[in-house]
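dumping this here before i forget
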Amino acid sequence: MITMNEVMNYLDRLIPNPVCELEFHKDYELLIAVMLSAQTTDKRVNMVTRVLFKKYPNLEALSEADIEDVKQIIQSLGTYHKKASNVILIAQSLLKEQDGKIPNDRTYLESLPGVGRKTTNVVLSILYNEPCIAVDTHVSRVSRRLGFARENDDVLIIEKKLTKKIPKDSLNKMHHQLVLFGRYYCKSINPSCEHCQLKEMCKFYNKKKKR
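structure:
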């Protein structure tokens, strides 16, 4: 059985400098981009935020945006009706309650429309270097395949299990590595098993090999 340290060393070789692939230039742009990324891809989010943030270049403009116009800009995203409303409400809340700044405050962030624990973890990790791991579909899949989580574990249970197994000072980096590993290597369909040095501990690979 491969240890967590061996997994970390392998990911360090494979993805030595992992970064969030969502594009942003201001703190609030990261928050909104992560909120928009639910049930869609970072690539698609980047396509719409380039247009959205150019047309509405600050929180004041976003807070006063016409919701139908925002819907039109982000309509290629899933649940875009709700997300368009969330964009405007988040901008209004940040201006009214936080002077336009993103606070290091989990309770406040999770109170924003469309912002849950996963989004908050990403934002706190990137902006404040808080030791957080956000469990998205990629992290969930990799964790289950490598035996760090059970098939029926929900995202909170997976987060707790990974937080126990991964050293605190490595959580942020490991989060991005697991996301990118799941996105480009340990894919849902046609993963690159043959070249993966973790395949001996992978449930998916071992089942496939038996078949």
